[in-house]
Amino acid sequence: MRDALGLRSKVGGQMQLTILSAEILKSQIGAKLDISISCNISELPNYHCNLIFTQKNQDLGPIGYLKFDNKRPLASAVISLKEDDFNDISQLLKNSPPRSASIFLFTEIYNEDAIISRSMSGEGSTVDINDLSWRYPII
After folding, report:
1. Structural domain span for residue 55
2. Is residue 8 situated within a structural domain?
3. Helix H or strand E segment including 85
4. Which of 15, 47, 94, 123 has its CA 20 to 30 A from that of 5?
């Protein structure tokens, strides 16, 4: 989340996602492209995650939400990126890195144990995504 000065809020948690694969999606003729990324969550080793990046300006509030499935170790998110950021990540994903790339989600504070216990009890949970960064190996 950005404050009034455009600076990232320091309050919250962080999740590291290791990219497994990525695809470009087009839902229909005339629609903007989306990016789908499949990844593992380092903080929750048994969880798999699917991210969908869309092109949309999101100046205030969370840029997306990470929703944890209530039956399986699966999380999914839709994240809105400005066009420049969307294009940056799209260009990077067109080249295969020499080792796995990572995406870091800056989230509201969350508790890994609570997420796991809610999933096991049939309750889902959701975490706000306030910002993100990525590390993409080039050599």
Report:
1. 13-135
2. no
3. helix 83-93
4. 15
